C-alpha cells in the first residue's frame, strides 16, 4: 500500500515516480492515505485539517500528524507494532508481520517480557524469508523505510525495529556502542522466533548491521548496506566533517535550529529539498528527542572503533549506494568493496544522495529485490 501511495502522489508527468523527492512530506502522505482509504469520513476529516491549516488555524504538528496515517498504511501492508523486552530496563519497539504477533492479545501494543520466546499465530504456515530493515540516525524505523515496506511484504516477512533511543526503544544500560545495539537487536529477533534473516541497514543502521553480521553469522544470512561503513574511525570522521564544514557529527546529525536541519538535508539529498518553513520546525520538534543519549551514541560510534579492522564476513554483501552521496561518498564504498573482496557487490544508483532509498525508491527497491531473490534462491539450492 505504501508503494500505491507513492504512485498516487508522483503522477506528475514532468517528474516520474523515482525522481520525486518526498522526504518527510506529511501533507503528501496525508493525501495518499485519504486517496486509498475507502472511508469517506476519514477523507473528509483529513482534508478539513488541511483546509483549516491553510486558513491559518494552528492545530497540529504536521510531522507528528502524519505518523498515524503512515502507521495506517503500514498496517494495510500487513505489519503490526509490538515491544520486545530484552532485559530489565531495555526494550525494543518493532513493526512485525501480523501473523507473528503473540497468540495472546493484550492491548494495542504487544509486549514480549524478558526470557520469553514468541508463540505466533502463523507458525504452521510456510515461512517467508525474513528481511530486517535497520534505520539511520535522523528518523525512526518506519519513517525511514516507508517506501520499502509495501514493496517487500508480498514475498518477505519484514521486520522494522527502532534502535535504542529511537521511537519507542529505551535502555537503562550505559552501553552506547553499535555492538550493543546489534546485540539487543539479535536478542529481540530471537525472542520473535527469527532464526535466519537478511539485514538491510542505512547509515548508522548499516554499522549496526555489520556488527550483528560479524557477531552472529548463524543469524545473518546476507547484508545490504547504503550510505554506511563497517566502522567509524577518527580519521574518517574528521575528514568527513571537515569536508562538509561541520565541527562534529553531533552538529550535523543532531541539529537544534531550522538552519541546522536544512543543512542536514542539503548534505543528505541529491537535489535541493523544498519544504515549507513550518514543516522544518515541526520535524525539529518531534524527530530529535533523547538528545543526550543520541549524542552518547555518536561518541561511542567513534570511540569504539579507533582501530577499525575489517571482520571476516561469511555473508554475501550488497553495497547499494547513492552515486552522489555527500556524507559517505561512493569512493568510500569502492574502498570498502575492495576490503570485503568477492563476497561484496557495489551497485551505485544515479542521481541519488545519502537518502537513496527515499530519493530513488523505485530503483532502490528493484535492486534490493533482485539481491534478495538471488540470496534466497541460493539458500533453497543448498537445502
From TrEMBL:
SUPFAM superfamilies the UniProt entry points to: alpha/beta-Hydrolases
Keyword list, A-Z: Isomerase, Lyase, Transferase
Residue ranges constituting the AB hydrolase-1 domain according to the UniProt record: 129-240
EC number(s) from the headed UniProt entry: 2.2.1.9, 4.2.1.113, 4.2.99.20, 5.4.4.2
Record carries keyword Lyase: yes
GO molecular function: 2-succinyl-5-enolpyruvyl-6-hydroxy-3-cyclohexene-1-carboxylic-acid synthase activity; 2-succinyl-6-hydroxy-2,4-cyclohexadiene-1-carboxylate synthase activity; isochorismate synthase activity; O-succinylbenzoate synthase activity
Keyword Iron-sulfur: no
InterPro entries: AB_hydrolase_1, AB_hydrolase_fold, Epox_hydrolase-like, Meta-cleavage_hydrolase
Protein name: Isochorismate synthase / 2-succinyl-5-enolpyruvyl-6-hydroxy-3-cyclohexene-1-carboxylate synthase / 2-succinyl-6-hydroxy-2,4-cyclohexadiene-1-carboxylate synthase / O-succinylbenzoate synthase
Top-rank taxon: Eukaryota
Pfam families referenced in this protein's UniProt entry, alphabetically: Abhydrolase_1
